[in-house]
Amino acid sequence: xxxxxxxxxxxxxxxxxxxxxxxxxxxxxxxxxxxxxxxxxxxxxxxxxxxxxxxxxxxxxxxxxxxxxxxxxxxxxxxxxxxxxxxxxxxxxxxxxxxxxxxxxxxxxxxxxxxxxxxxxxxxxxxxxxxxxxxxxxxxxxxxxxxx
Length: 148
Fold this sequence. Notes:
Pfam families: AsnC_trans_reg, HTH_AsnC-type. This protein is of the alpha+beta class.
């Protein structure tokens, strides 16, 4: 579907799923005014075309606000990136990891339950073979958050 245009129903379907990814196909069909089999077919098409690549859980604000968040710049040795990414992916505290231009090779967003856990986590990241250095900035306050 990446090459095909999404119509209004596809866009509405995606919006409903963004609001509640666990919504039943029967409820989606009722809200969209189309047959359940049409919803199933459209979902399959959106998934196979790459418009929908997964379903996830968003934590409530209480769970998301607990703990400490940090942005971590990570510099790695040449050709060590793949293994470093693999190791970092195993940390449940890793929220995002991006390849970036500039001073660092990667920028990670971490959320830990405490500053003690964040400190230990940063030590664990620093111990990964291929990691040269990390530079961390702890989030003091979130000023704008436009995530859906």
